[in-house]
Amino acid sequence: MTKIVILTGAGISAESGLGTFRDTDGLWSQYRIEDVATPEAFARNPALVQAFYNLRRDTAARAQPNAAHQALARLQRDWRGDVVIVTQNVDSLHEVGGATDVLHMHGTLAGALCGACNHRWTAPPSMAPDEPCPACAAPAARPDVVWFGEMPYHMDEILTHLASADLFASIGTSGEVYPAAAFVQDAHASGARTIELNLEPSAVTSAFDDIRIGPASEAVPLWVDELLQKQN
Ligand code: APR
């Protein structure tokens, strides 16, 4: 049965009120990546980095999944084959919207990670610059997110899924950040059909077989309806 692998980015959560990164007014027009999203930034100024993620954690906790998250959860439930969601997003809106099989390749705001002993636990709503690890007591707790210069999570598993995918979809991502931007090539190499759903053409649009332009809350439910109808 057809296996579907779906990559999502900030655009799928935009209509839930979470800012994207590279659009006008995006997060990276308000903050410099090297000030808030690198291991060096955290070493230099943990207070600024924790404050940045505390604010994002608070905003994400108030957000609700939109019709696009819900449509993907419906696809996972009703499709008679595997549907794997790989997200670059650190919010939990796929899971809140009912999705079950979600790989967070850039980590999650809901998690904390000890920089000293690698223990992981549920992040408190707000983390202090010298937040202690509950396991080893080192004042080295950080958000369990992947910063620039760090290795994304679950890569072996993701590449294995892409190697057996029949259909690959990329939703709401600019195609500017690797390795996710290369997944379309990986999927093609394994013979999958590929489709991009985005508000505008991405940096890697030309690599896709199909493209649907529009807001995720409209384009994704329509695409899911089409797939489910074809299956019946
Ligand atoms: N519906 C669909 N797409 C949208 C919508 C929407 N309502 N709003 C914006 N978009 C599209 C934009 O056109 C853009 O192409 O979503 C994309 C968002 O791109 P980015 O801001 O670059 O976000 P993303 O691709 O997820 O960034 C990748 O970069 O900074 C890092 O770690 C961060 O995971 C993030 C990674």
TrEMBL record:
Cofactor annotation remark: Binds 1 zinc ion per subunit.
Organism: Pontibaca salina
Binding-site positions, Zn(2+): C114, C117, C133, C136
Reactions catalysed according to its record: N(6)-succinyl-L-lysyl-[protein] + NAD(+) + H2O = 2''-O-succinyl-ADP-D-ribose + nicotinamide + L-lysyl-[protein]; N(6)-acetyl-L-lysyl-[protein] + NAD(+) + H2O = 2''-O-acetyl-ADP-D-ribose + nicotinamide + L-lysyl-[protein]
SUPFAM superfamilies, per database record: DHS-like NAD/FAD-binding domain
Binding site for substrate: Y53, R56
InterPro entries given in the database record: DHS-like_NAD/FAD-binding_dom (IPR029035), NAD-dep_sirtuin_deacylases (IPR050134), Sirtuin (IPR003000), Sirtuin_cat_small_dom_sf (IPR026591), Sirtuin_class_III (IPR027546), Ssirtuin_cat_dom (IPR026590)
Membership in a protein family: Belongs to the sirtuin family. Class III subfamily.
Subcellular location: Cytoplasm
Any GO MF annotation of the entry: zinc ion binding
Pfam families noted in UniProt: SIR2
GO cellular component terms attached to this protein's record: cytoplasm
Entry note about domains: 2 residues (Tyr-53 and Arg-56) present in a large hydrophobic pocket are probably involved in substrate specificity. They are important for desuccinylation activity, but dispensable for deacetylation activity.
Domain Deacetylase sirtuin-type intervals: 1-230
Official protein name in the record: NAD-dependent protein deacylase
Entry cofactors: Zn(2+)
Class in the EC hierarchy, top level: transferase
Keywords in alphabetical order: Cytoplasm, Metal-binding, NAD, Transferase, Zinc
Documented EC number(s): 2.3.1.286
Role of this protein: NAD-dependent lysine deacetylase and desuccinylase that specifically removes acetyl and succinyl groups on target proteins. Modulates the activities of several proteins which are inactive in their acylated form.
